[in-house]
Amino acid sequence: MLVWVFLSFEIKLKNTEIQLDKIFFSVLSGLLLSASFPKIGFNWFAWIALVPLLISINEVSLRNSFCLGLLAGFTHYITLLYWLVYTMQVYGHIPLYLSVMILVLLCAYLSLYFGLFSAVLTWLSFKPIICFLIIPVLWTSLEYVRSFLFSGFPWGLIGYTQFNLLHLIQISDILGIYGISFIIALANATLYFGLLYLSGKDRPGKRISGGICLGTIVMFVLIFSLVWFYGSRRIQSIDKLASAASTQRINIVQGNIDQAKKWDIAFQSETIRKYIDLSQLSQADKPDLIVWPETAAPFYFLYDLELSQMVQEAVKDIGANFLIGSPSFTHRDKGKTVEFYNSAYLIDSKGQVKSKYDKVHLVPFGEYVPFHQWLPFLGKLVAEVGDFRSGKKGNVIQWGGDDLGIQICFEIIFPNLSRLMVENQAALLINMTNDAWFGKTSAPFQHFSIAIFRAVENRRALIRSANTGISGFIDPVGRIVASTPLFEEATMTQTVPLMKTTTFYTRFGDLFAMVCLTITMTALLIRFILFRKHSH
User: Fold this and answer.
1) Which are the catalytic amino acids?
2) Which of 127, 275, 355, 421 has its C-alpha lying 20 to 30 A from 137's C-alpha?
């Protein structure tokens, strides 16, 4: 099927043998890249995954390079995001053929970034050293653009594959996740140049000399060694800061509520009772805060009085502060307009609501329908409420003398949202989510691994409470202190540090990625000027 899609681009290479060879390497790149992410999780594949693509676009036209990149990207995203079909079909009640069509359209869009990577690289690589330098810069630039263009979808950034390589990912507190992606792309470029040198092939028209090959290796080894050394020292220093910081006892509750029953009115009391019973199990641990997942209370808290009182009475009986997820709404224009929010409520030990956070970055088709005037046949996965509205970016919840940075569901995949909360003095990050949508696919594992980088970037402990899992505790250096299995009832308590330190990344954000994008745009401008000059 993938070969057929590729051939539809009408690529005209010199002969069939070369054509099939390049198609094979392009597809291989996409498969290797997907296999480097959880669940498969062969993270070392990421260090070589781009090499087949780079080989396939060597000495081809600009058009063919773009198409080979598209094929690699489509192969990658269709195998990485396959779980979207399950989510749309099972919970969105969208027919299988339409779910597949939506997935194909999304993957086709995301594949454009691979196509652009290949085409721009081909156009800029008029000298070998420029080719080597532009590979990691261009890759990082396009990942960054993908994080905000059309509301952004920074899922599956190549740096996320290294979530469990602690010494490497510490540099994220300076460079962010994009710094890890840069290093991986640089490794791929180094290996690619080594293979070119050994094969004796030109790139384009320029022989890769032994000096250039040796220089690329030295550059990568030097950068990697410095990053690894920084990581080793940083782990030690952050551990010392964390051990000296004030602490709180936090409990997380994983109710494992069937998504098919979650919004059924007949099961609302049963759902709340399960969360209350699990919360009561934590009383022996004497937690300061008990965290329920996103929309764990599947009703309008404070509006549905009977269920609200049920929760508030339980909070008073347990005698701890609670953070619970629930939808909410407000009236505007003297009651003429109703605005819905996906919210988190902080309730004190006396059952009184102290603060509320409203989700900022909403899920398309999950919480609102984009372009609904053109896509009237598509509805939301959560049909029980109207379209949600966005809360205020960077808002934190005050809890005693500290502030909490709350992120609901896939808000955690956007680095800047966590950064703004820590910049606004959040001492602890909390991710409340409901990954029941994903079933037992690889999505919950991918989602959990992404959260680790928000802890490292900002040097904050991160708590994750998920309806069906994976719930867990992540320390400020990115260690998974404790985690729960999927689709099991669970409750666990940990003592977590409340950090106050401010990292370079928290202060300046994605500066490194912006620099890469600036370099890419400058290189394109210079290349365009030179092209115009020579064409005349």
Assistant:
1) 294, 359, 409
2) 421
